[in-house]
Amino acid sequence: MKKINKILGLFLISVLTFTSCQDDDISIGEITAPSNIEITVAYIDEGVESQAPGLGSGEIKVSAKADNATAYQFVIQGQTKLQKSGSVSHTFTTLGTNIYAVTVIAFGTGGVSSTKTIEVEVQALYEPPADLLTMLTSNSSRSWRIAYETPNYFGLGPVGTTRLGEYFPNGGTPDKANSGMYDDRYIFNSDGTFTHDTGDDGAVFGRKGLITEIGGPGDGTADGDDILKYTYADYSESWTLTAPGGVETLSLGGLGFIGYYIGGSTPHSYKIFARTDNTLTLIATDGNNQFDWNFILIAD
């Protein structure tokens, strides 16, 4: 019996040794860095692409191609987008005519990459309707808060959703009372400045892995994919209104945000899904390009 065990043991060692040698011989093929990166820009007005500079929509489509490339990464205004197709759309919300850097990173086999940066001149012109300005600022200054007593005041769905709270509908239950969000105030001033009052607790609410982008002490309490009561002081930024593709859009300067920090393009932009004299429903795509998040605000 001992002899049989000994023979089996030697056989097992031989098999493992052979397998190990086989693993060492695995080849990943030739590693080739992409070359000859070409970047083209199309300007989009009312959904129509043109090679001529746009007429003020602020929206562009960037396309890239390169020899030996398997995927592309676009870096625009601090936002990184990975696309195998080699094209991506982006809307600039800073009013006027401005020049921006667009970087394309082309990836080849084995993860090697090549990079190219160009500059694009984009015009964003928009005159918001008077009733929207009045609603947002009361022609001077107006404070808003999360309407936690309203159904689907905070929710998410797939990118491009047209339904509030598609994944996690809420019947108007204030179930985020410990998040640090309810006592925050969002103040819009007619001079184009925005103040985020982070409340008596001096804390905000955000997405795990993204909220640290805003700085601060890096504290808070993890709750699944959320970070509750992340310490953060009051701050001020700018705000602008545009209407890419005919959709009224509110953009906050810098890292300014509303409700729940989700990252995304800088400045952070929120599509106005619906509005009344005293309520404002916003939708924004997170920095992971994973979900669309909705927020309902009510005048305070």
Question: Can you tell me about this structure?
Answer:
- This is Glucan endo-1,3-beta-D-glucosidase.
- 10% of the residues lie in helices and 44% in strands.
- It is built from 2 helices and 20 strands.
- The longest helix is centred in the N-terminal third of the chain and has 23 residues, at 2-24.
List keywords for this structure.
300 residues; mainly beta; Immunoglobulin-like; Lipocalin; 2 domains; eight-stranded antiparallel β-barrel; four-stranded antiparallel β-sheet; 10% helix; globular; disordered N terminus
Shape: globular
Structural class: mainly beta
First-residue to last-residue Cα separation? 85 Å
CATH topology of the largest domain: Lipocalin
Shape-level CATH architecture of the largest domain: Beta Barrel
SSE pattern, N- to C-terminal:
HEEEEEEEEHEEEEEEEEEEEE
List the topology elements:
Blueprint lengths: L1 H23 L10 E11 L2 E3 L8 E9 L3 E6 L2 E5 L3 E5 L4 E12 L5 E12 L5 H8 L3 E6 L7 E4 L27 E5 L3 E5 L5 E5 L13 E3 L2 E6 L3 E8 L6 E4 L15 E8 L3 E7 L6 E8 L1
Antiparallel strand pairs: 1-2, 1-3, 3-6, 4-5, 4-7, 7-8, 9-11, 9-20, 10-20, 11-12, 12-16, 13-15, 14-15, 16-17, 17-18, 18-19, 19-20
